[in-house]
Structure formats: C-alpha cells, structure tokens
Amino acid sequence: MHLNLKPYYWLLLGIVVVFVLIGLIGNVIIPGGINSQFWRKMGPYVVFGLFLLGVASLVPVLLKGFLVAQYKIGNSHLPLVQLINQHSKQVLLTVWVIFGIGMGVALPYMIKDGFFEQAQVAALESDQSK
Fold first, then answer.
1. Which of 83, 91, 100, 105 has the smallest set of CB atoms within 10 Å of its CB?
2. Could you list the residue ranges that cross the membrane (predicted)?
3. Rounded to whole angstroms, how far apart are CA atoms 80 and 101?
4. What is the DSSP letter of 78?
C-alpha cells in the first residue's frame, strides 16, 4: 500500500481528544453559568462535522488493516487483494466519493427533518432532567 497513514492516525487522535474536551467543557462550563446561545446552536454542526471527518479519516486505516490481514492469512496471491493493494489511493477516493454522495443525498432531508434543531436539544435536556 502506498498510503502514508500518519496524518490519518493524528487526525483520528485529535478528533477523539476534541470530543473528550467538548464533553468535559460542556459538563463543566455550561452548568457553571456560562451558557452561550451561539455554542448551543453551533454545537450539533461542529460535532457532526468532526464525526464525518473522523469517519473519513478512519477509511484509510481500515483499508490498510484489511490488506495487512489478507497478507497475514496468505491471501496476497488473490487478484482482488493485489488489485486493491496496487490501486489503494483510487479505492480510498472512491469510498470517499460514495460517502460524499450519500451525505449529499441525506443532508437536505436531515435539515428538513430538524436534525440540527434546537428543539431536539431541549427535548433531550428535559428527558435527562427527569
């Protein structure tokens, strides 16, 4: 495989750290009295964007893991494994394009159905307070 996975590992690690920090900050600052409407409105967009970025950066790591596993179990001679190994960048770009097309189809419906709306956040908070 001709992909350098270091940037993807660092990106995944950074996203996990950001998610942990968002959780800690959200549980410490918001109950402490700092309650910004801007962050309440932008929070779902930020978290969803980070999630999508994390999923996209996980694809090359999983592709490399798949190829390593195929080589370890002795399937390196199979034409499909050789094809994926020789064209790993094209496979990666194809998966990302398919993800992008799927997101392009789903996102308008998510917005229309209120996926990012404040009302859902308020409903979740009222359920947690019970």
1. 105
2. 7-30, 42-63, 91-111
3. 25
4. S
Residue 26: domain span: 6-129
> Over 70: is that where the pLDDT of 76 sits?
yes
The single-letter DSSP state of residue 1 is -
Q: Assess contact for 58 and 13: CB atoms under 8 A.
A: no
* 63 domain residue, yes or no: yes
How far, in Å, CA of 44 to CA of 38, rounded? 11
Distance, CA of 93 to CA of 22 (rounded, Å): 30
pTM for this predicted structure: 0.75
Query: What is the total count of domains within the chain?
Result: 1
pLDDT of 28 reads: 74
In a domain, 90, yes or no: yes
For residues 110 and 61, what is the distance between their CA atoms, to the nearest angstrom? 28
Q: Please name which of 91, 72, 77 lies closest in space to residue 3, comparing C-alpha atoms.
A: 91
In a domain, 71, yes or no: yes
Q: Is residue 1 part of a domain?
A: no
Q: Cβ(57)–Cβ(18) under 8 Å?
A: no
